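tokens incoming
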């Protein structure tokens, strides 16, 4: 913090495994958590996986001491945004293809989930009392159109959901 403003300093890179797509990242003690997709899935495999809500990825933890470690029980259908809550000691992961927000202990043990249509990104509100989760409002056809049409911006709508920290069932 300099003159009351926060700054980030780039410290380097961590190499990912071959054919891995990393999505969101959240800081954790001595490392970070990230969501991982397999980069080997074809377009048709992605479509079928989306329709059938098949597991397409999971959460990885990286630490200085252990490097990359998959978190048990975090495999899901298109894991997306995530947030580490150091005060509640829980990892919150949006499972877009499964239409739910999942809560885990730091070791990956599943705690609970809340249903939200295609949850995407997640942040704390400014005072840290609520998780703010964006959910995509589009159906299957519009979602696929956005994924495969890179020539124009995606105009898919979204809703912001507010989940109270400590009481995730109250949306």
């Amino acid at each position: 913090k300099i003159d009351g403003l926060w700054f980030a300093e780039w410290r380097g890179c961590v190499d990912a495994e071959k054919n891995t797509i990393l999505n969101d990242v959240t800081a954790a003690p001595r490392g970070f958590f990230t969501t991982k997709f397999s980069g080997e899935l074809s377009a048709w495999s992605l479509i079928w996986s989306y329709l059938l809500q098949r597991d397409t990825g999971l959460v990885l933890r990286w630490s200085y001491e252990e490097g990359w470690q998959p978190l048990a029980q975090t495999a899901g259908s298109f894991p997306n945004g995530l947030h580490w809550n150091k005060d509640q000691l829980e990892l919150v992961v949006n499972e877009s293809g499964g239409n739910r927000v999942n809560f885990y202990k730091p070791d990956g043990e599943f705690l609970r989930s809340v249903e939200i249509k295609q949850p995407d990104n997640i942040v704390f509100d400014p005072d840290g009392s609520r998780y703010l989760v964006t959910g995509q409002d589009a159906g299957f056809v519009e979602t696929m159109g956005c994924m495969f049409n890179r020539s124009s911006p995606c105009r898919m709508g979204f809703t912001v959901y507010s989940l109270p920290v400590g009481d995730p069932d109250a949306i």
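note: DSSP finds two helices and eleven strands in the chain.
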